[in-house]
Amino acid sequence: MEAWIVSLAGSNPVFSGGLALGLLGAVVYWLKDALPATAVFLSRYIVSTVTVDNRDEILFPTVVEYMHARDVLRRINQFTVRAVKESDAYQSLADDLRQGVRPRAFLSPAEGFHIFWLDGRLMWMKREVSVGQTIFEKITLSCFGRDKSVLEGFIHAAIEERVARELDKIAIYIPNPYTHGDWSRARLGNNRRLASIILKAGQTEQILADLGRFFADKARYDDLGIPWRRGYLLYGAPGTGKTSLVTALASEMRLNVCSLSLAASGITDDKIGSLLASVPPRSIILIEDVDAFFRQREQQSQQVKLSFSGFLNALDGVAAHEGSVVFMTTNHPETLDEALVRSGRIDFRMELGPCDRHQLAGMFRKFHDDPALAEAFAAALPEGALSPAAVQERLLKARSPAEAFVRFDLPVPAGLAGAAVTAAD
């Protein structure tokens, strides 16, 4: 039989050609099913893949922004760009530019297929965009191997990059002027290092430890049935660093700052209660110069629409908002009514005054890190005569240690006598 088929094929070119075409068709038909199955097998068992799409409002922009940070991805010659606003208070590009706020542009691989080497590993990416009633965008990242830690590392690195950028800023909130009682993020300010605030010996450690204990003691407050809140009063002459200390503490503890002016438009008995009950989690409520609004129980300005009793009720109401911290500052603590600063409303008091010797030396070292010169500088100046703001202003103008002494009308130490000194303002 086999010999007959061979002899027939050999003597009949039509049959031979048809047989070849039939065999080729069979192979093609087999490949039609086999190749996709093989591809599925390979993708499932020797390729790792991760997918993220824009339905995830946090992770998707995080990955896109991270691509901008990786040089290998920015070298791809087809890319897309997106602008990221510096703050949630964005009104218009013109308004932001007038205030010195610029949007940031992030480049990332464009729609389509891209192959690249990342950290010594061959990887590829597919970016898809579909437009319908909404825009749906998806990024699929793949690499050879079944070890998903490579892709997990990429995602975690993207998250850490964004976290580091966000934590490098401090969120400042103000009352939303368009609603009854909530907050809007006014801006993202630069973190203020706590080490940059030079207080009297032990003061920084004391208040930082107290704030840390408060946040660590939620369970204890719950067990004792005490509202989990804390009130602080910082008092002292202008320029002693009250507001700066609050900002630095917020930066150190990764807290928001909700700045509240009692004379702001629309701050009434009704609205302040809503505001203090809707404070963002882990926030400091900062009420500066409280003596400028109330002396004893009297309003100090016609702009203040808030009553003293309404203010006290709002402070007590914030107790229902777990974890809130109230900082009040004043230049004249003696003018404050006892009801305002009683225990339960104010739990911690600290006076910030003119510079003592410790502060003078510390502030000198902040600008010129020479311990011996710092001690000489502090010893030459009278204690309690200058505010930290006044000392900082003069030291900031001094471009050298010798000039720092001149700025304070002090004799320049012998070792610095030959240094160039420019005392002009």
- Shape verdict: globular
Domain module count = 3
Structural class: alpha/beta
Helix content: 40-55%
Q: How many distinct beta strands?
A: 15
Organism: Zoogloea oryzae
Subcellular location: Membrane
Protein name: AAA family ATPase
Family: Belongs to the AAA ATPase family. BCS1 subfamily.
Set out the fold topology.
Blueprint: H1 2-11, H2 13-45, E1 47-53, H3 59-69, H4 71-74, E2 79-84, H5 93-98, E3 104-109, E4 112-118, E5 121-131, E6 135-144, H6 149-167, E7 169-175, E8 183-190, H7 203-216, H8 218-224, E9 230-235, H9 242-253, E10 256-259, H10 269-277, E11 283-287, E12 294-295, E13 298-299, H11 308-317, E14 325-330, H12 338-341, E15 348-351, H13 357-367, H14 371-380, H15 388-397, H16 401-407
Parallel strand pairs: 7-10, 9-14, 9-15, 10-11, 11-14
Antiparallel strand pairs: 1-6, 2-3, 4-5, 5-6, 7-8, 12-13
Helix pairs in contact: 1-2, 3-6, 10-11, 13-14, 13-15
Which keywords apply here?
single chain; alpha/beta; Rossmann fold; 4-stranded antiparallel beta sheet; 16 helices; disordered C terminus; AAA_lid_BCS1; BCS1_N; ATP-binding; AAA family ATPase; transmembrane helix
Folded structure, characterized:
- The protein has 425 residues and is of the alpha/beta class.
- It has three domains: 47-167, no CATH class; 171-351, P-loop containing nucleotide triphosphate hydrolases (Rossmann fold); 357-416, no CATH class.
- 42% of the residues lie in helices and 21% in strands.
- The chain contains 16 helices and 15 strands.
- The chain has helices at residues 2-11, 13-45, 59-69, 71-74, 93-98, 149-167, 203-216, 218-224, 242-253, 269-277, 308-317, 338-341, 357-367, 371-380, 388-397, 401-407, and strands spanning 47-53, 79-84, 104-109, 112-118, 121-131, 135-144, 169-175, 183-190, 230-235, 256-259, 283-287, 294-295, 298-299, 325-330, 348-351.
- The strands form four sheets. It has a seven-stranded mixed β-sheet. The protein has a four-stranded antiparallel β-sheet with strand order 1-6-5-4. Strands 2-3 form a two-stranded antiparallel ribbon.
- Helix 1 (2-11) packs across helix 2 (13-45).
- The longest helix is centred in the first third of the chain and has 33 residues, at 13-45.
- It starts with a helix and ends in an 18-residue tail after the last helix.
- The model is unreliable at 420-425 (pLDDT under 50).
- It is a single-pass membrane protein.
- It is found in: Membrane.
- This is AAA family ATPase.
